[in-house]
Design goal:
This protein is mainly alpha-helical. Helices cover 71% and strands 0% of the residues.
Length: 362
């Protein structure tokens, strides 16, 4: 059902593309896709929240059922004993106290996540392209996050919305938002190095970004992080918790360099560097390119641990949609054709997920 709805949304996204920006048809298309996007947030939140076939549903349901009410005497002891973050524990307890329905909680959790993501898209993408941006999200990230790993989905959505403050130069607010996101998924803290991101380019900073990207490629080939951790373990330098994850088969599974997700990001990052003289003069494109580059390097460096690579890299790789749409708009040539090609590419990516990813299960 979710897959069918995403494909239907792809069809609607095609109709949001128009050749004449100032025509009445264009205005009608823009307003229509805006209304459809808002309705989609409601509908798909309901579909994801009621999807009891997904891989993590049973675990999250049991956790909700075992959770005490917010003001119960044993709530704090329960929260401390769980592996989940404090923000999730409080949000869950509050929902249980108010409505005592796991289904309502799952729907609300997904809805809030999509609202944060909408805020990000609305600030970096034109209203007419909102539908395309959401389809790119639905084609991959939604299936692997909000449909399964709901904590990771909300944390990444909050991190994305925090980029609005970073782009405006409000670094303190950005840091507070990242810390808030870490209350739902601790891995959100790896977004804090983005505090150094800029909106204006310089030769020295451009050199720094180039070296940073080269470092990611060299590091993943010559110095696999798993081998380094084993060396540190032999020296007794690793905490016991890290050692446990090192030998946990689920976490120690590596990501191949031929993984479609990783390969796509590396190729796009290389293409951006090849076109940097034409792209980096635009402040928004330059800013989003930095964020995307950090996401790619996280994937490269931590690919020995596929789960960690996914959690770190995918925190803000969703800047891909507004980045590519901004590049297309700035080109000013064959904009409609390029957007149609972009939609077709992610449709293929969507079908690849449908055929290879089983955790969503619809």
């Amino acid at each position: 059902m979710i897959y069918d709805f995403v494909f239907f949304f792809f069809i609607l996204s095609i109709f949001s593309i128009s050749t004449n920006r100032n025509s009445l048809l264009k205005k009608c298309q823009t307003e229509s896709i805006f209304a459809v996007s808002l309705c989609t947030i409601l509908v798909i939140s309901f579909m994801a929240g009621t999807n009891d076939s997904r891989a993590a549903f049973a675990a999250y349901l049991k956790f909700f059922q075992n959770s005490p009410y917010l003001f119960s005497d044993n709530f704090f002891e329960f929260a401390k004993s769980q592996h989940t973050e404090i923000g999730y524990n409080y949000f869950q307890a509050l929902a249980k106290t108010v409505c005592n329905s796991a289904t309502v909680f799952f729907i609300l959790f997904c809805f809030v996540s999509l609202l944060f993501r909408y805020a990000f898209y609305r600030n970096f993408v034109s209203l007419a392209d909102i539908g395309i941006a959401f389809f790119i999200f639905f084609s991959h990230e939604f299936l692997r996050k909000d449909c399964v790993q709901i904590r990771n989905g909300l944390a990444s959505a909050i991190v994305l919305s925090s980029l609005i403050f970073l782009y405006r130069g409000q670094r303190f607010r950005f840091a507070l938002m990242v810390i808030f996101a870490s209350c739902f998924q601790a891995t959100a803290l790896v977004a804090l190095p983005l505090l150094v991101a800029r909106t204006e380019n310089s030769r020295k900073y451009e050199l720094f970004l180039t070296l940073f990207f080269v470092f990611g490629i060299v590091f993943t080939v010559l110095f696999p992080v798993k081998n380094l951790l084993f060396v540190f373990e032999g020296m007794g330098l690793l905490p016991k918790t890290v050692v446990n994850y090192l030998y946990w088969s689920e976490y120690s599974k590596s990501m191949s360099l031929m993984n479609p997700m990783l390969l796509k990001q590396v190729c796009i990052s290389l293409w951006i560097f090849c076109k940097k003289k034409r792209l980096f003069f635009d402040n928004k494109i330059f800013f989003l390119s930095q964020i995307y580059l950090v996401s790619t390097v996280y994937y490269l460096v931590f690919r020995d641990f596929e789960i960690l690579a996914g959690r770190f890299g995918s925190l803000f790789y969703a800047v891909e949609a507004p980045l590519l749409l901004s590049i297309i708009e700035k080109s000013g040539k064959n904009v409609v054709v390029k957007k149609l090609f972009l939609l077709t590419f992610y449709l293929c990516f969507f079908f690849l997920n449908v055929l290879t990813y089983q955790d969503t299960l619809v």
